[in-house]
Each structure stands twice: as C-alpha cells, then as structure tokens.
Amino acid sequence: MTALQPQTVPVPVLDADLDFLDIVTEWDTTTAFHKWRPSIVVPATFRSANTPRTIVVGNQKGGVGKTITSLELAMAFAARGLRTRLIDADPQKAALTVWLRETCYPEVGPRHTLRDVFFGQATLAQATHPTIYRGLYFIPSDPDLSDVESANSSKVLSPETLLRDALRADTGEWDINLFDLGPNLDKISISALIAAQDLVIAIQDGGLEVEGTGNIITTVNSIKERMNPDLALRAIFFTDFKKDSLHRKIGQEMSKGFPDALIVPARESTNAGWSTLNKRPLRMYAPGDKPCLDYDRAAGLLISTDQKAG
Ligand SMILES: Nc1ncnc2c1ncn2[C@@H]1O[C@H](COP(=O)(O)OP(=O)(O)OP(=O)(O)O)[C@@H](O)[C@H]1O
Ligand SMILES: [Mg+2]
After folding, report:
1. What does the pLDDT look like over 263-272, one tens digit per residue?
2. Which residue of 6, 129, 219, 308 shows the fewest CB atoms closer than 10 Å?
3. 21 in a domain, yes or no?
4. How many whole angstroms from 308 Cα to the centroid of ligand 1?
C-alpha cells in the first residue's frame, strides 16, 4: 500500500441548519406518540467538562454501537479543534483498527500498538499514530492484545493501573483521550476505567438494556470506590434509535435510572453500516446524516470548548 500523508483532511464542521435533535432537560413521556420527537436529555445537574479529558466508551454487551460511538465522538472533537487521541482497547476484534487501517492512517515504519504499551515495549507516545484527519490520532489494537489477560505478572506489571500511570507520564498535549472498549470487562477495560474521568455507555434496543447497563455500573462503582473517585457516568448513547414506542420506553427507563447523564438517541441510518463497509468514519461518508448530527451535538455537550476559543 502506498503511504498516505498524515493529517491532510480537515474534519468538516456541520452546518447549524441541519436536522439536529432538540435539547431538553427530561425525557418526554407525555406528548402524544404521533407528535413525539426524540430529543437529547441534558439533566439540570449536567455540566460540560473542560479539557484535558479521558473518556471510555463501554458496555459489557457486544454489538451495541460502542465502536461507532467512539469514532464519531472522536471525529466531532477533532472537528472542534481538540487534539484527540482514539485508542482501540478491544483485544478481540480490533474492529476500529481494521476499520481505520486501510483508509485513515498511514503505514509509516514499524507500528507499535496498545499491546506493546502493556508489555513495556513502547510508550503511549510511541504507539500513537497520526491519521489522515486533522486533529485525530490513533493507538491501534492488536489480536495479541489479549495476551495481557493471560500474561503473568513478570511480563505485564500492574495492568490495572498501567494506563493511568502511562497517561500521567505521557508527554503529548492531548485534549481528549478516548478508549473504545471490547465487550468484556477484562484487565484492559478495567485499566482504562481506572485511567478515565468520563464513562460513556452505548446501548441498542432490547428490553434487557436497562438491566445490562446495571452490570457495568456495578463495576464502575467498585472502581470508583477503590481506585478512581473521579470516574462518572456522563452519557448514554442509544444507537440505531428508531422512533417507536419500545425505544421511547427504554429511553424513559434510562433517563430515570441515570438521572445525571446525557441521554442521546443516535438515530438509525443505513449509512452507519455503509460507512463501516467503506472503511470511513460516518462523518466523512455522510456528514449530514442523522446519527452524525447526534454525535456532534453530544460531543459539544460533553466537552466545553470555550476555553479554546478564548
Ligand atoms: N445509528 C445507527 N444506525 C444504524 N445502525 C447502527 C447505528 N449505530 C450503530 N449501528 C450498527 O450497530 C452495529 C454494532 O456497532 P458497533 O460495531 O459500533 O458495536 P460494538 O458495541 O462496538 O460491537 P462489539 O461489542 O462487537 O465491539 C453495527 O452493525 C453498526 O452499523
Ligand atoms: Mg466495538
């Protein structure tokens, strides 16, 4: 493959007159269904965070939109001028790495991955690669990342606190570090949760979603108590969101269950699948598409860019 030039493509800023969702403070349960329109819930207690920020996108359930949420949020942050590093922490599929490899980040020299960071063979800086998108950097995964799970402690020292310590020692000036987790709460996921301030959960339809999120919340609460008091659930992205009574009901349950978090319907679009097939972020494949708008607005709510403007 020919080497691509890094950082040549600007991430588009979206037009203000596109079909963005409204922002409300409570999930609407009263409007008649035919008049109801999903909205983003921003609870009265919610405050945008300042950079630098470390965000983890997770859920112990597979196939619920974690990876698309990670990538689209990262693109939205980059579009706002934030220096954003996306980290593929899924050992099993390395889906994000495969997604981005061919089209989005250049083949230059030997490539360190997150595995090398865990095995002490590279620093975070050495495993960080530019993408072709301005402001977006990437740490790839590796099928051998799962070795972290089985390695004995002489090979991987303190995996649980490794990412936290590596980020503290990191030299780059990052506004955002954003981890895409795999569906298992393995050592890598725990390590990312100990390093992070913000947890973002992705869910997809299904009556068990509310219970399912309970699992990750239990883990997060124990991490919060023991290792990382700064960790907080900041947002729930309801991906592939359809305007039907089931989605409306689950949105209501989520809003009730997590009253301090953003509730973001990321509306359904066939372009979500097409963009993956074409190995492009949705924001580049279909920039005015509904889920792209939903991720963009949510990114603006999660992180304040006022300090940048000043
Ligand atoms: N807004 C959307 N509209 C339509 N389909 C969507 C939308 N968001 C996500 N999807 C689809 O949901 C599926 C799962 O997405 P994704 O791979 O991001 O999930 P995941 O949680 O990362 O999965 P895994 O646990 O396997 O890592 C994909 O097929 C994706 O195209
Ligand atoms: Mg994934």
Report:
1. 999 999 999 9
2. 308
3. no
4. 32
